[in-house]
Amino acid sequence: MTNSTIARRSLAAGAALALALSLGGCSAVQNIFGGGSDVPRDDDGQVTEQGTGSAYDLEVGDCLNFPAADEFSDVELVPCGDAHDSEVILNFESALAEFNEEEMYAEADEQCATEFQSYVGLDWETSIFDYTYFTPLEAGWEDGDRVITCVAYQADATDGSLVQTTGSVQGRAE
User: Fold this and answer.
1) Per residue in 110-150, pLDDT tens?
2) If we measure between CA atoms, which residue out of 18, 90, 82, 28 comes closest to residue 8?
3) CA angle centred on 49, ends 76 and 40, rounded to 5°
4) Residue 96 burial (CB < 10 Å; 0-12/13-18/19+)?
5) In this structure, what DSSP letter does residue 35 have?
6) Alpha carbon 54 to chain centroid distance?
7) What is the per-residue burial (b if ≥16 Cβ within 10 Å, else e) of 20-31?
8) Beta bridge pairs of residue 151
9) CA 101 to CA 130: how far, in whole Å?
C-alpha cells in the first residue's frame, strides 16, 4: 500500500455542502495520522466497532465520519447503527489513461451520480442526501492508485455542516 493522504476540495452544488476528497502520496501526513489499523468487521464485512481505518480499505456500505483536517489518510469508521455523517456507496477504478484532475472529477461525478440513484433510491437532486468522492492525487496516481470512492452524506440546509445520521442510506429513498 502506498502512503497516502486525502485532501478536501469544495465544489459548487447549490446550497448543499459538497466535498471532493483526493488520495495521493504523502508519507509525512501518513506518519502524523497513523497507518490505518484494522477495524473489526463481522462475517458480512460490516464494521462492528468504531475505529480508525485506511481510506484505501473502504468498502461499499461502510459508514464513517469525515476528519476535520484538509488532508488525511485515515478515516473514522463507525457501525452504521451508530451516529455517522457519510457512507461509501461505490468504489471503481478510473478509466483514464493518464492523470487529469478535471477529467477524473467529471468521471467521478458521472459514476457517483448514477450509483447514488441505485444505492439511495432517488437521484441526488431530489434526495436529502448528496454525494462526494475520494480521488487519487497525482502522486498516488503515479504509484498506481486508480480507485475512486463515492460517498453519500447529508448537509444541513442552513450552514452546510454534515448531518449525523444512524442507519444505512441504502434504499432509504429520502
Assistant:
1) 999 999 999 999 999 999 999 999 888 898 899 999 999 99
2) 18
3) 95
4) middle
5) -
6) 11
7) bbbbbbbeebbe
8) 88, 132
9) 21
What is the number of alpha carbons within 13 Å of residue 17 lying toward its C-beta? Answer: 19
Q: Among candidates 156, 66, 64, 171, which has minimal Cα distance to 116? A: 171
pLDDT tens, residue by residue, 49-101: 999 998 888 999 999 998 677 667 789 999 999 999 999 999 999 999 999 99
- Can you read off the three cell numbers belonging to residue 103? 477529467
Cell matching residue 82: 451508530
Distance of alpha carbon 137 from alpha carbon 8, whole angstroms? 11
The residues, ordered by sequence, that sit 6+ positions from 25 with a Cβ below 8 Å of its Cβ are 2, 3, 4, 5, 137, 139, 140, 142, 143
The set of residues, in sequence order, having a beta carbon less than 8 Å from that of 122 and lying 6+ positions away, is 173, 174
Its pTM stands at 0.80
Give the Cα-Cα-Cα angle 63, 103, 12 (nearest 5 degrees): 60
